[in-house]
Write a structure and sequence with these properties.
The structure is a single chain. By secondary structure, the chain is mostly beta strands. The strands form three sheets. It has an eight-stranded antiparallel β-barrel with strand order 8-9-10-11-12-13-14-15. Strands 2-7-6-5 form a four-stranded mixed beta sheet, with no helix packed on it. Strands 1-3-4 form a three-stranded antiparallel beta sheet, with no helix packed on it.
Length: 212
């Protein structure tokens, strides 16, 4: 009886699942070469380090397709996207994409002020803290653009540009797995205000920050 049962089970085996278990069903992967974030000067030059694509142990780098909106003549945050598509042993099509961010620092930075420091935003649920860190003349990282209160996952870092005429810009840019974001930032005597107009996870109200 046991021999008959074993024979039946053998006939019902899922050979596609066996293939997965044995590692014969492969999916592509992309490795971005060099730094994932590059900062260059407006009007300067940039040579991309590229990416490498693998299908198991096979090198399929030649199949990578690259796209970019990079404009070295305009200060902003740009992306270089690397993608590769593969049809595996089960005729399943898979496309994977990896990304590099290129930040073009302004050629006309504001040199008359330094916005570095810690700012807070007080709301009913607590106090949100945002730290501005200068990484180049006229270029900052704001580590909590929405001023949300921890442990909210929407603590998102953005690049902020400070131009010689006093204007601030948060151009559209990718934000930590939450799509893209842009913001309107204006300074005040006590700190600054932020409006985030186009992100589904934020309201469009004015967010007030006070420097500490």
């Amino acid at each position: 009886m046991f021999a008959v049962l074993a024979t039946v089970l053998a006939c019902d085996r899922d050979f596609e699942s066996d293939g997965v278990a044995l590692g014969t069903i492969r999916f592509p992967a992309i490795q971005v070469q060099g730094d994932p974030v590059i900062i260059v000067n407006q009007g300067g030059t940039y040579t991309d380090a590229g990416a490498k694509a693998l299908l198991g142990a096979d090198d399929i780098t030649s199949r990578i397709e690259t796209s970019s909106d990079l404009d070295l003549n305009a200060a902003g945050v740009y992306t270089i996207n690397y993608s590769v598509t593969n049809v595996n042993e089960l005729d399943q099509e898979t496309t994977v994409t990896e990304q590099r961010v290129v930040v073009v620092a302004p050629s006309n930075p504001n040199l008359s002020r330094d916005l570095s420091g810690t700012y807070t935003r007080t709301i009913a649920t607590g106090v949100g803290t945002a730290v501005w860190t200068k990484i180049a003349p006229g270029l900052y990282i704001n580590d909590n653009i929405g001023g949300v209160v921890p442990p909210n996952p929407l603590i998102l870092s953005v690049y902020v540009f400070d131009f010689a005429d006093g204007t601030l810009s948060v151009p559209e840019q990718p934000v930590n797995g939450f799509g893209t974001l842009t913001a309107n930032v204006t300074t005040t005597a006590a700190g600054y205000n932020v409006v985030i107009p186009n992100h589904p996870n934020f309201g469009t109200g004015n967010r007030v920050f006070i420097k500490q």
